[in-house]
Design a protein that fits this description.
Blueprint (H helix, E strand, L loop, with lengths): L12 H10 L3 H29 L4 H11 L10
């Protein structure tokens, strides 16, 4: 288990009530959301770095990536 530290946060009452209506573990839920956000941030940084070095992605590359993310396969040929 990862090392944890207890912190206090302030949330709107309505948001907290909504969270509690679909999870028994608000802390775990918020941790999962924060981890997801951090992975997206790191990925964005890496994609920005890559494009800075090699240029912007082409429309074909973006379309293939979308296809792969949606699970519809994408192109089997590599250029």
């Amino acid at each position: 288990m990862a090392k944890t530290k207890k912190v206090t946060i302030t949330l709107p009452v309505e948001l907290l009530e909504s969270l509690k209506s679909h999870t028994d573990n608000v802390s775990g839920y918020l941790t999962e959301l924060a981890e997801r956000a951090e992975r997206r941030r790191l990925l964005r940084e890496e994609l920005d770095r890559y494009q800075g070095e090699f240029g912007a992605f082409t429309e074909a590359e973006l379309a293939e990536a979308q296809s792969l993310l949606r699970g519809s396969g994408g192109s089997a040929s590599a250029a």
